[in-house]
Amino acid sequence: MRKDAHGTTPAQPPPAKLQRALLRWYDAEKRDLPWRGTKDPYSIWLSEVMLQQTRVDTVRPYYQRFMETYPTVFALAEAPLERVLGDWSGLGYYRRARMLHAGAQQIVRDFGGELPREVEALRSITGIGPYTAGAVASIAFDVRAPLVDGNVARVLARIFGVEEDVRGGAGRARIWQIAESILPQERAGDFNQALMELGATVCSPSSPRCGPCPVRGMCVAFASGEPERLPNMAPKAKPRPWKRAALVATLGADRVLLARRKRDLLFGGLWEPPTLDASNDRDEGDGARLLALAGVKAEVPVRAGEITHVLSHRKMTVEVYRAELRSAHATLGQNQAGASLDEGDGEYDAIEVVARTSAMRRGMSTLARKVLRAGGIEVNMGRSEGEATK
DNA sequence: AAAACGGGGTC
DNA sequence: GACCCAGTTTT
User: Locate the HhH-GPD domain: which residues (predicted)?
Assistant: First the structure.
């Protein structure tokens, strides 16, 4: 059984109680939106597609205009794509409009102009993914189909105390499983909308207004005192800054290019295979020269704050990194003269080509391979220089 | 798994 | 002005 941070087992809200509380709240508090109060599957499909990645207030006028211009799936299917795109203009994500148009034609061709009621059939329509299929099935047809969007994921993660990353595989699957398990027999569509409405108006991402929340009494996150701590969103795909790395590989099997870091830098005075920040203009000086010397033009993505040992390509702490660099330094010999570089504000003040020790061999070739491949360059390690092929 | 997709919002 | 938002398709 899963335990929370306090080592206790979170109580699972009884579905019946949750269903009653949410539906009751929804009936009383739901916003009056143009696509509410219709059961027309086409209207609901249209509104759901428009609402993908788009705020309610932005969608509102577009929805009303579309319903006037294209009142039926046939009208939409027969309209020229150019006109549909024109009417979509300003909503963004124009692929949605293309898929909507193609989907309408598909519905006319494959389903006689009627949207199917089953999730599986809906999923076959272009532009209808897991969320939209659940939305149309449940809202238009009251099929007991679950649905998960960003709001639902947040609300359910909080109520049920889901600690797993709701974007990742396990957490995502768990949210969908919960969403299905709590669906009422009746009014599945309203229940799904209640979850989304709660997320949109009460259970907001950063500062949920738990006061008026109809289900705070059965909410694990509320009980924890820090409801905003959930859901856990995995470290959002961190943008990976690009670094250019000049490497030893193309100097051949037995030689290594090293550069001495300037004294006032981190690891100052130590030698390392030069790694250069390509996003930094300063590297135009030393950097370009080092790259030319190494004969390598490749880029490798490096995560900010992460230290990758340039000799072994192992991830490590700063302390270990420093120790290993010192050790490499000692191995190479402090009396290596080193060709001095012109004064610049780059990171290095000297370069040297030295014999590659056996201790370096494996790590370096691994690193070289990786970096060169990242740069779109195929390598044949162990061969003489110049044999790297595209 | 991750990027691309387009606007608009917030901090 | 960078950062965040959130489904579907594509790679």
Answer: 50-201
